[in-house]
């Protein structure tokens, strides 16, 4: 199949279908736009702070974590929410620089780095592109229903665990009341629970103090972005109150 070429402000972006992508994602076909992930699963884009000019737009770069645990690197998010993701990520990096290492006033443990990420329900439309000699995998976000996209933030080492939990039957989300004993836990769950609330005061379009509860795995504390809040994720955002006695 012939290569598709797009002009991008002095840079020619050649869309190709390479053997390498087939090896990484064997279910894909040799077509310009391909769909990766599970039709009923959750996949997550994790920005890394880099940006690239693609199709005349400044887009965030990061990793794509698939529902089966596979991670694809050098991924561009192109289309709806691109500028929002860049702004959200820059702000959380700034807040990390301000607070990480300081003590949580409730459990006296040090704050940890948080990471924003953007979950897609269902398969993700991706095309492969080469820009200035670098191969990227481009998420065509305008082909995704906005109801199937939502933004979250949690401890940076928990993002993969979060995606796994979302794809695990029996996992449920809950919100923490202000007097929840979880905030007093002297582990990372307690610290991140309070820290997501703290960041909420600086990010006007977010809400902290949520937890993902798994039957056989640790509880994952997280926050949500209300500016990227698809209705397919209501159970993770409009969550019932979590009750814990210890």
Walkthrough of the structure:
There is one protein chain. By secondary structure, the protein is an alpha+beta fold. The protein has one domain. Helix content is 20%, strand content 39%. It has helices at 19-24, 82-99, 159-166, 188-200, 234-237; strands spanning 4-8, 11-15, 34-36, 42-54, 57-65, 71-78, 114-121, 124-131, 134-140, 149-155, 172-175, 206-213, 220-229. Strands 1, 2, 3, 4, 5, 6, 7, 8, 9, 10, 11, 12 and 13 form a 13-stranded mixed beta sheet that branches. The chain is globular and about 50 Å long. Residues 1-31 have low confidence and may be disordered.
Distance between the termini: 60 Å
Q: H/E element string? A: EEHEEEEHEEEEHEHEEH
Strand content of the residues, in percent?
35-45%
Number of separate structural domains: 1
- 3D shape: globular
Number of helices: 5
Largest sheet: 13 strands, mixed
Low-confidence stretches: 1-31
Alpha-beta classification: alpha+beta
Query: Could you give the count of β-strands?
Result: 13
Q: Give the % helix.
A: 10-25%
Q: Tell me, rounded to a whole number, the average pLDDT.
A: 88
Q: What does the radius of gyration come to? A: 19 Å
């Amino acid at each position: 199949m012939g290569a598709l070429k797009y002009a991008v402000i002095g840079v020619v972006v050649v869309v190709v279908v390479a053997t390498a992508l087939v090896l990484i994602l064997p279910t894909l076909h040799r077509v310009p736009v391909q769909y990766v992930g599970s039709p009923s699963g959750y996949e997550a884009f994790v920005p890394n702070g880099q940006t690239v000019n693609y199709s005349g737009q400044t887009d965030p770069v990061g990793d794509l974590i698939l529902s089966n645990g596979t991670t694809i690197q050098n991924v561009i998010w192109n289309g709806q929410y691109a500028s929002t993701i860049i702004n959200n990520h820059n702000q959380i990096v700034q807040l990390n620089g301000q607070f990480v290492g300081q003590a949580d006033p409730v459990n006296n443990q040090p704050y940890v780095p948080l990471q924003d990420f953007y979950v897609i329900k269902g398969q993700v439309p991706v095309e492969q592109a080469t820009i200035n000699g670098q191969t990227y995998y481009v998420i065509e976000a305008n082909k995704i229903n906005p109801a199937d996209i939502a933004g979250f933030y949690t401890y940076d080492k928990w993002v993969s665990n979060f995606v796994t939990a979302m794809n695990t039957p029996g996992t449920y989300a809950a919100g923490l009341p202000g007097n929840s004993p979880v905030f007093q836990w002297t582990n990372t769950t307690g610290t991140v629970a309070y820290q997501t609330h703290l960041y909420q005061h600086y990010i006007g379009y977010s809400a902290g103090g949520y937890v993902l509860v798994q039957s056989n795995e640790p509880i994952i504390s997280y926050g949500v972005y209300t500016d990227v809040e698809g209705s397919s994720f209501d159970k993770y955002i409009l969550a019932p109150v979590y009750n814990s006695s210890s």
